[in-house]
Specification:
Structural class: alpha/beta
Shape: elongated
Largest sheet: 7 strands, mixed
Number of strands: 17
Strand content: 5-15%
């Protein structure tokens, strides 16, 4: 048996042709230095007998290696590893004397510093029962309408703008549809040139931060705020200054005192339903915030992540609707409306800002998903999106009422909360005598996932309990699991 055969493993049941398996095995050994430049290879007849394959298979493997430049032939002398290849350091052997193969590389061969700031767990979905952070029920999404719209768009393949590079600000039809929708639903005085399509609101926040914030700039956020937003600002080099949050949202008077002493570049707010506490900023604070922006010339980044779901009264108009000085960047998302899997968000801002953010977006994504964006535009045009919003609003309103009623009747002695006027989650504080992280572990073992609240601060012992993604029977089952784990 030729010693080379010990490095070649053939799987006749694999989809990869045998001659390719042989070629890949030999290439691997050349890369590792086991077979050095100029090494003599066995003849095709000898190797075929050794491997138990047809000689034509080995010939095909050698032809493949020769075409790729790994081997060369010399008339009357035979076949050799190409002498043009550089010398390769032989891999170390393990304690058995056998080369370690197929081990994934863990360490880079160049200087690489891990970004510790971003080393935090990434949120993932679950098929199980969960009172999550506040996400939509994907079962309610108009999948039939989305599928029909997508098929219709795909059939328009002759439209080169859909199947080729297009506007870096997003697919035109969706920008136009969103412009009309935001005018009608939020009172924004905008044109299509004021709208940028992104892959979710987090991307919009990232693009805004990278376009505006420079290293050392002060960014104001609530002392309870969106964690990913904070990471985005810090990663851009910002100095975060936290502002108190009360039952009316971020404290604008405290913000004013900071502005008197410090140059502020950007203020991040979620005024409609403050994240994570869900409270709504009243009109007087909104006007005061806009006055501060005008006086101190800072940017207001308004994240309106779940504007479309308000239950007890008409939603309060966004800050962007009352902005006359071009101080507000307004971001939102269709992910909460439909499903997190369809990554479509948007940013609304003065034309020059949208142009700058679009140029930046082009470096990391070039453009969005033209076909998906065109399909969603069709849902706006034919009324399917409005019908879905009406259906979802009705369902989430009912679920909020059921959830809060059961929370009060079954868990009122353990949790303190205020029934939210809108949104998709309840901000709940647990009895300080009971550890929320421990409770989260117990409920998980019983089949219910709830956020452990650690990201908001262990001292708070509070978390968001989402009700939108669970139906009435699931709410009842989840509450009973919680009740059982609390004793």
């Amino acid at each position: 048996m030729h010693p080379l055969s010990t490095f070649i493993s053939i799987d006749k049941s694999a989809k990869t042709p045998i001659f390719v398996q042989i070629a890949n095995a030999l290439t691997d050994q050349i890369r590792k230095g086991t077979m050095v430049s100029g090494a003599h290879l066995p003849g095709t007849r000898v190797l075929a007998v050794t491997l138990g394959v047809h000689r034509k298979t080995v010939i095909a493997a050698y032809d493949e290696l020769m075409a790729q430049g790994w081997i060369e032939t010399q008339t009357t002398k035979g076949t050799f590893v190409s002498r043009k290849l550089p010398e390769v350091k032989v891999d170390k052997l393990n304690h058995t004397g056998i080369q370690i193969t197929n081990k994934p590389l863990e360490k880079a061969g160049f200087a690489f510093k891990k970004n510790q700031l971003l080393d935090v767990p990434a949120l993932r979905g679950t098929h199980g029962l969960a009172f999550n952070d506040g996400f939509p029920d994907v079962r309610l999404a108009p999948w039939d309408e989305i599928s029909r719209a997508y098929r219709s768009v795909v059939k328009q393949g002759y439209r080169k703008d859909l199947l080729f590079y297009s506007d870096i600000s997003g697919e035109y039809s969706l920008r136009a549809a969103l412009t009309d929708y935001l005018r009608e639903s939020r009172g924004l005085r905008i044109g299509i040139e004021n709208v940028l399509i992104t892959r979710g609101s987090t991307m919009a926040i990232y693009l805004a931060a990278q376009s505006i914030v420079q290293s050392g700039d002060v960014v104001l956020v609530g002392d309870l705020s969106y964690g990913s937003g904070n990471l985005i600002f810090q990663n851009a080099g910002a100095t975060l200054v936290k502002v108190p949050v009360d039952e009316q949202g971020i404290d604008v008077d405290a913000m004013a005192r900071i502005c008197e002493k410090t140059s502020v570049r950007l203020v991040y707010v979620t005024p409609h339903h403050h994240y994570p506490t869900t409270v709504t900023m009243p009109a007087e604070r909104r006007l005061r915030l806009l006055q501060l922006a005008e006086k101190y010339h800072f940017c207001v980044l308004e994240d309106d992540y779940d504007y479309d779901f308000h239950y007890d009264c008409n939603p309060i108009m966004p800050l962007a609707g009352a902005d006359t000085g071009g101080h507000v960047i307004y971001v939102g998302s269709l992910c909460k409306v439909l499903t997190p899997a369809l990554r479509v968000g948007y940013a609304v801002a003065p034309t020059e800002v949208i142009a700058g953010m679009s140029q930046l977006r082009r470096l990391i994504d070039r453009q969005g998903d033209n076909l998906l964006e065109a399909a969603l535009a069709m849902l706006f045009r034919d009324g399917a999106m409005m019908r879905h919003l009406k259906k979802a609003q009705k369902n989430y309103h009912h679920r909020r009422d059921v959830f809060c009623e059961l929370m009060s009747s079954e868990l009122g002695t353990f949790f303190e909360f205020t029934k939210p006027t809108g949104g998709m989650a309840v901000w709940a504080r647990l009895d300080p005598a009971i550890s929320l992280p421990d409770l989260s572990k117990k409920t998980s073992q019983k089949g219910l996932l709830i956020p452990d609240g650690i990201s908001y601060g262990k001292h708070l012992n509070a978390t968001r309990l989402g009700f939108a993604s669970v139906n009435e029977s699931e709410i009842e089952r989840g509450i009973q699991i919680l009740r059982g784990c609390l004793g």
